[in-house]
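Minutes, project check-in
Item: structure for the 299-residue chain
Input as provided by the requester:
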Amino acid sequence: MTTEVQIELLTDARQFLLTDARQSDRREIMEYEKTLHWYRQSRFTADDVTRATDLSERSQRELLKLGVIQAVPQPNPKAQRLVTDTMLKRAAIAAPLTKAGLSLGVAGRIVYAAMMLEDLIFDIVDPWDVYYDAASTFDPETGLYEPRKLPHNRATWFDPAHQPTAEDDDFRICIVDSKYVLLGVGKPDAAYGELTPDLTDFVWWDNSMYDHIRELGKDGVLHLSVKGIGDHSPMPFGTFDTTENPKTLTFRMKAATEKDGEAAGQAYENPTSLLTINASLALRIALRRLLHIDEVPAS
């Protein structure tokens, strides 16, 4: 065989491999986009929630009963229970708190009261938002934006080739000395509540609440829609949509003083015990499992 023929065959083989690889990549992209459209429907079963969060069916029913999460209203009361992505994400962060020993009710209140989660973090750590660029050209025929151009700072979050890892600017919640509850991006150093001495309840500090949320409190008690903080924000402030008859989640409030804040800060800097939940990472892990990017570890 001549050198020229060998080179030609090698070139043909290389071109075939490249074409085959591109076709394989395109198939994977199409499958992932199909999965994203399923996710975008925001209708998840109890099995989906268990796969994502490790919470059992029984624990999910308890969260529903407590008003920590809400099922999607359906005409048929016997229809399969479904929850939205917001409820699944809320459960995904409550789950590691319960594994650390807190009750579902306390864990759920800690997550709900961390208002930045549903105001911002849930949207940032979202596979649809990570994949599609809302700042790009919108296609009215498909109803989609263009995929984000690589590389970008969230590119590895839902990439099967990369394991989920902690990042410096992740949103974290921590409990210091089994009392103070703090949150923050990167460093969770902003106190927003405390646990009762017997660890059976979470008390929300009023100085960490949005003004229109704080104004709903009466006699140290606050009742909020299970649908979330956003359900209390239509005009006028302080009202919420009752057409779906949402359950309410009850909180104890505390008029926190400057000394309370200083004590929490001192405890954070010099803790005898410290429980930290990386909420951003917990979301990424749960959503990767939900999308079948990662398998659920055997128990």
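Outcome recorded: The chain has ten helices and nine strands.
No further action items on this chain.
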